[in-house]
Design goal:
The structure holds 2 protein chains of 2 kinds. Chain A is an alpha/beta fold. Chain A contains 13 helices and 15 strands. Chain A is 39% helix and 20% strand. Chain B is an alpha/beta fold. In chain B, strands 2-3-1-4-5-6 form a 6-stranded mixed beta sheet. The chains are: A alpha/beta, B alpha/beta.
Chain lengths: 375, 178
C-alpha cells in the first residue's frame, strides 16, 4: 500500500487549509471552487471549527475579516465573479492589515464567462483589483504537492505579514484528481503568533520594515479598525506625514521580506537557450514540453513562478544574464508577459503563447512554440 | 517516463467517471503508481456526452489531460464522435456494439465491439454496474493494474450487500473480451 492517495485539487487545498489551522471559513460556493466549501462544511463542524455559508462573496470576505480580527485563521474560496465582488473587502483587509486567505480557482471570464472552463486571466486583477496603492501576496501552485504546501504557506504569510494572501488555482487543477502524499503534521511549518494583549492603544505604531503584531482585539479596548487611512491608533487621519508613513509601512512589510515570500521552481535552466516562464496549469504543459524539447536536442528550461505577486523579479533577472530567449505561456491574452518584459533586459528575445478560449495548452503546442523560438 | 493514457467516453449517468476514479485509486493506492484523472463535469454530465482521461505513469505526471491515448472505451455514439481524437496508432478501442454504430476509419486501431451495456444489464443484473464492467474490460485488455488488486479494491469499495453483484460485474467484463 502506498502513502499516496488520489485527491481532487480543490480537496487538497481544503485539507491543507485545515492542516494550517484554518478554523473559520465563510464562503459562497461557485464553480469550479465549490468542493472547497463543500469539504469545509462537512469537516469543520466535526473539528469544532466554524463554517458559514454566506449570502454572497462580499459578505463571505467580510465575515472572514471580522473573524480574523477575533483571532481566527480564516479562508474563503471563490472563482472569477466572486473574486470581483471581493475586491472592496480585499482593500479593507489590506488597509486594516488583516490576515485572510482568499482562494481563486480561475475560470473563463469576464463576467459569468465560462464556469466550467479554465483560465489564468485574473492575474492582474489579483495584483490591482482593489483600488489604491497596496501590497498583495499571491501564490499559484501547479502540482498536487505544491497545492498542499502553498496553501499552508498562504496562511503562514497572511499571519506573518498581516495581509490578505490570494491563493490562485484554475479549473484544471481544481477539478483534476491527482496522486498526492499529504505530509504528516510537524513536517511543515505552521506559523502562528498567539494574539497578545494590547499594551497600548497605538496598535499600528511601528517602524517601517517591522512586522505588525497579532493583537487581541475585541477584549474591551477602544481600538478603531477602519478602511479610512488612519494613525497609529487606528483613528482616521489625513495628515500628510502620517499617511505617507502608513502607506510605506504597508508596502515595506512585504517588499522588505521578498526572500521569505518569493518561491519559484527552475527546471533545466542551467544551460537553457530558451527560458519558458509560466505558472499553474500552463507550467505543467510547459514542463512536459521542455522535457520533450530536450529529447529533441533543444535546450529549453522552465521558470515556474509559485509566488506570482510580488513578481519574482530578481530570480528571473539572474536567469536572463545567460538565457537570451524567453517564452511566456499563460491562459489569457497577455498579462504576466508585461512583468517578464519589464524584467528582461534589451537583447532578450521575447515571445508569448497566449490563449483565452477555455482550452489548456497541450504540451505539443508549447513544444512547437519553443522550437520556433529556438530557431 | 513510461506512461499509459486511457479515455472513457459515455453519456452522463452511465457510470464511466466512476470507472476512471476506481482505476486511479487502484493504480495509486494499491500499486504505488502515479496517476491522474480529469473528468468533464458540465451541465451535460447527466444525459450529455462525457469523458474522463486517466493517466497512469511510473513518475509524476506533468500534464493531466490525455494527449496520446493508448486505450479508449466508449459506450455511446455522441461521445465517440466528439472524443475520438488524440488516439495513438495501435491503440485499443472498445465500443459498445449496440450504441456505437458508426466507427469511421479504424484501421490504425485494434477494435473490440462488444455489448457492454446490454451484458451489464443481463449478466450483472443492473446497469449501474457499467463502471465496474468497463474497469474489468480495461484490466483484461491492458493489464494496467493487476486482476487481484482490482478484485480486492472493488470488494472494499462496494457497499455492504453489493459486493456479490460487483464481483459478478467483474466476471461479465472479463468474459466480454475473449
Amino acid at each position: 500500500m502506498s502513502a499516496r492517495k488520489v485527491l481532487q485539487g480543490n480537496i487538497i487545498i481544503a485539507k491543507a487549509a485545515l492542516a494550517a489551522g484554518c478554523d473559520f471559513f465563510a464562503g459562497y460556493p461557485i464553480t469550479p471552487s465549490s468542493e472547497i466549501a463543500q469539504y469545509m462544511s462537512k469537516e469543520m463542524p466535526r473539528m469544532d471549527r466554524t463554517f458559514i455559508q454566506m449570502e454572497d462573496e462580499i459578505a463571505s470576505l467580510g465575515a472572514c475579516i471580522g473573524a480574523s480580527l477575533a483571532g481566527r485563521k480564516t479562508m474563503t474560496a471563490t472563482s472569477g465573479p466572486g473574486f470581483s465582488l471581493m475586491q472592496e473587502h480585499i482593500g479593507m483587509a489590506v488597509m486594516a492589515e488583516v490576515p485572510v486567505v482568499i482562494v481563486n480557482v480561475q475560470r473563463g471570464g469576464p463576467s459569468t464567462g465560462m464556469p466550467t472552463k479554465p483560465a489564468q486571466a485574473d492575474m492582474m486583477q489579483t495584483r490591482w483589483g482593489t483600488h489604491g496603492d497596496h501590497p498583495i501576496i499571491a501564490l499559484y501552485p501547479a502540482f498536487a504537492d505544491e497545492m498542499f504546501s502553498e496553501t499552508v504557506r498562504a496562511f503562514n504569510l497572511a499571519e506573518k505579514y498581516w495581509n490578505p494572501v490570494v491563493l490562485l488555482s484554475d479549473e484544471v487543477l481544481g477539478k483534476a484528481h491527482m496522486d498526492v502524499e499529504i505530509p504528516d503534521p510537524g513536517t511543515y511549518e505552521v506559523y502562528w503568533e498567539k494574539p497578545h494583549q494590547v499594551v497600548d492603544l497605538n496598535i499600528y505604531d511601528r517602524q517601517i520594515g517591522e512586522n505588525p503584531p497579532r493583537v487581541d482585539f475585541f477584549k474591551g479596548y477602544p481600538i478603531h479598525i477602519d478602511g479610512l487611512e488612519h494613525d497609529a491608533h487606528g483613528w482616521p487621519s489625513f495628515d500628510a506625514k502620517t499617511v505617507d508613513k502608513m502607506q510605506r509601512l504597508r508596502m515595506q512589510k512585504i517588499y522588505q521580506n521578498l526572500d521569505d515570500i518569493i518561491r519559484y521552481k527552475e527546471y533545466y535552466l542551467d544551460d537553457a537557450e530558451v527560458l519558458v516562464f509560466s505558472f499553474g496549469i500552463s507550467a505543467r504543459s510547459a514542463l512536459a514540453a521542455v522535457k520533450a524539447a530536450r529529447e529533441q536536442g533543444v535546450k529549453a528550461g522552465l521558470f515556474q513562478a509559485l509566488t506570482v505577486w510580488p513578481f519574482p523579479r530578481a530570480a528571473l533577472q539572474e536567469r536572463f544574464q545567460r538565457t537570451k530567449k524567453v517564452l511566456t505561456v499563460e491562459m489569457n491574452l497577455g498579462q504576466m508577459k508585461y512583468e517578464v518584459e519589464r524584467v528582461a533586459p534589451p537583447g532578450v528575445e521575447k515571445r508569448t503563447l497566449l490563449r483565452a478560449n477555455g482550452m489548456p495548452f497541450s504540451p505539443d503546442e508549447v513544444l512547437a512554440a519553443i522550437k520556433e523560438l529556438a530557431k | 517516463m513510461k506512461k499509459f493514457e486511457i479515455r472513457y467516453g459515455a453519456v452522463g449517468g452511465q457510470g464511466i467517471i466512476t470507472a476512471g476514479a476506481l482505476l486511479v485509486d487502484i493504480a495509486v493506492e494499491m500499486e504505488g503508481k502515479f496517476a491522474s484523472e480529469s473528468p468533464t463535469y458540465t451541465a451535460a454530465v447527466r444525459g450529455g456526452p462525457t469523458k474522463v482521461d486517466v493517466i497512469v505513469a511510473d513518475e509524476r505526471i506533468d500534464f493531466p489531460h490525455a494527449t496520446a491515448i493508448d486505450f479508449f472505451l466508449c459506450t455511446d455514439q455522441r461521445p465517440y464522435d466528439i472524443y475520438k481524437d488524440r488516439i495513438k496508432d495501435d491503440a485499443i478501442v472498445v465500443v459498445d456494439s449496440h450504441l456505437v454504430r458508426e466507427l469511421g476509419d479504424t484501421r490504425r486501431w485494434k477494435v473490440y465491439a462488444v455489448p457492454i451495456i446490454n451484458e451489464t444489464k443481463v449478466g450483472a443484473g443492473n446497469v449501474v454496474l457499467t463502471s465496474v464492467v468497463s474497469l474489468a474490460v480495461t484490466q483484461k485488455l491492458t493489464n494496467i493494474v493487476t486482476y487481484e488488486h482490482m478484485v480486492e479494491h472493488i470488494k472494499h469499495w462496494a457497499p455492504k450487500g453489493a459486493v456479490e453483484m460487483n464481483m459478478k460485474a467483474i466476471e461479465v467484463g472479463m468474459n466480454l473480451i475473449q
